[in-house]
UniProtKB/TrEMBL annotation:
One of its GO terms (biological process) is carbohydrate derivative metabolic process. PANTHER family: PHOSPHOHEPTOSE ISOMERASE (PTHR30390:SF7), SEDOHEPTULOSE 7-PHOSPHATE ISOMERASE / DNAA INITIATOR-ASSOCIATING FACTOR FOR REPLICATION INITIATION (PTHR30390). The keyword Isomerase applies. This is Phosphoheptose isomerase. SUPFAM superfamilies: SIS domain (SSF53697). Keywords: Isomerase. GO terms for molecular function: carbohydrate derivative binding; isomerase activity. It comes from the Bacteria. Gene3D superfamilies: Glucose-6-phosphate isomerase like protein, domain 1. It comes from Bradyrhizobium shewense. Pfam families: SIS_2. InterPro entries: GmhA/DiaA, SIS_dom, SIS_dom_sf, SIS_GmhA/DiaA_subfam. Residues 42-193 form the SIS domain.
């Protein structure tokens, strides 16, 4: 279909949508500093024999899984994601959904690990409880949130990323973009083979 035949309403929507994404992913010195600090934190975890543990719900869990794979495979930083269905159902059954990730952190995290907590709203109780558990274990914590500047997750990490958007897809895309930038910063280049 030629571009000239695009429905004007669709074009208007997509112009606005891409503009929102552009504004959300616009990087200033503050974001550069947080991405650089994320790299430093991940490399410190590796040097200490630790791992980077990614957590999230729904789309954020999918992003967490993707990031853990890429960080481990492409950047050689040990990483994992708490998204196994058996672990989730076991711990949620025993401790409740709001506490299952906190118990996963308690059972699996160790000194030197870093927790990356992803929640678009910044209000997910299971993510907040996991961050509290990580804090009691003295783990480094990186947070990614959005939606509302007053969300409780926004200031709980050593490094905190916030996306000023009310769109879940824009927030999630921006979270993934920033973390992929941090992974590529660890690698030292933006283009490399898949294997």
């Amino acid at each position: 279909m030629p571009a000239e035949s695009v429905d004007p309403d669709h074009k208007s929507f997509l112009d606005d949508y891409v503009g929102r994404l552009h504004r959300a992913t616009a990087i200033d010195d503050g974001v550069f500093a947080r991405i650089s600090a994320t790299r430093t934190t991940w490399l410190r975890a590796r040097e200490q024999g630790g791992r980077v543990i990614f957590i999230g719900n729904g789309g954020s869990a999918g992003i967490a899984s993707h990031l853990a794979i890429d960080l481990a495979k492409n950047a050689s930083v040990p990483a994992l994601c708490f998204s196994d269905a058996s672990m989730m159902s076991c711990l949620a059954n025993d401790y409740g959904f709001e506490d299952w990730i906190a118990h996963a952190v308690r059972l699996s995290a160790r000194i030197g690990d870093c927790l990356v907590a992803i929640s678009s709203s910044g209000r997910s109780k299971n993510i907040l409880n996991a961050v509290a558990q990580a804090r009691t274990m003295k783990l480094d914590v990186i947070t990614l949130s959005g939606m509302n500047a007053g969300n409780p997750l926004r200031n709980l990490g050593d490094v905190n990323f916030y996306v000023d958007s009310r769109s879940y897809n824009i927030v999630e895309t921006t979270h993934q973009f920033w973390m992929m930038a941090a992974i590529d910063l660890v690698i030292g280049r933006a283009e490399y083979p898949a294997s």
